[in-house]
Model the fold of this input.
Amino acid sequence: MLTTRSFAGTNAMAIVVELDASTTVGANADDFLQIWATSGTL
Amino acid sequence: MKTNYLVLPILALAGLGLAGCPSDDTGNQTGSSTGDDTTNGTTVTPPTTMTTMDPDSTVGTVGMTSTAGTDTGETSTTDPPTGPFEFDETPFEDYVAVDRKGFPAINTGLNLLGDKDVYNAATPVDDAALTFNMNIRQSLETLHLGAPGEQTADNTGLDDDLIGAGFTPCITPPLPANNCDDQSGSYAIPDVLTLDLDDPAAFPNGRTLENPVMDIIFAVLLLDLEAHDVTTFLDLDQDGTPGPSINPIANDVEFPGDFPYLAPANE
Done:
């Protein structure tokens, strides 16, 4: 089974996440998103 | 179906923040991109791995671009793992944040003198509390006039160069009537990428791979946008057609148009 640690040692240049934006907005009537990403270590 | 994709230039994705926000938080949405550019200066490797995390979820599809080499710079034709993946379920709060990304180049360009690790470990909530406001003001001063307290004949910032090239710079803090912080502050505080689904998706309303974001950001940071269009640096003759420009107006490799959207690597 592959895990997140399977990425260790690879030269990951980008991770692409594709999602349905309108679903992500959900019940927010403003149709407005603020987006950021973080990476971290244990 | 409207679909949004995010490109995350990070090694390990520990958290991804998505939040619907009230319309009064929209901030300054100055201008938009009309050009085609650029991952200039960025090495993008071929899309080699993709997996569907959960077909019933709203998360969608996750892909990763990588080479099978190591930090030595080695590259390999070995295919990377293809999943399915078993993701670590360690609680988010147990992680120590080491990087973050929202609006392009904030830590790079508006945290010139501050501790970049501290900035990376912070959150948009810290931004909204104006934790880094002084960093932003000092960075603008450094860009325009030179580092605070160190401005000499050899350390004058970019204003004299911009004026010499025929541009009108914005007025940086701490000068009276400054407007540089008004132009750029709303993008940096908080440091998030905004996306209004009711408007066309083009930087700074979201960010497409083709958008020449750095040329636009340079204009916001450096120019008086009462005197210049935000597209000035990617349309120097201002004829409405991109180019001539400071940076290339198109990526050197065509984007594929389907998932994961990134161009193949420069070998």
User: Anything to note?
Assistant: The beta strands of chain B are 3-8, 15-20, 47-52, 61-67, 85-86, 96-101, 193-196. The two ends of chain B are 35 Å apart (CA to CA). Chain B touches chain A through 77 residues (CB under 8 Å). Confidence is low (pLDDT under 50) at residues 1-17, 19-59, 68-77 of chain B.
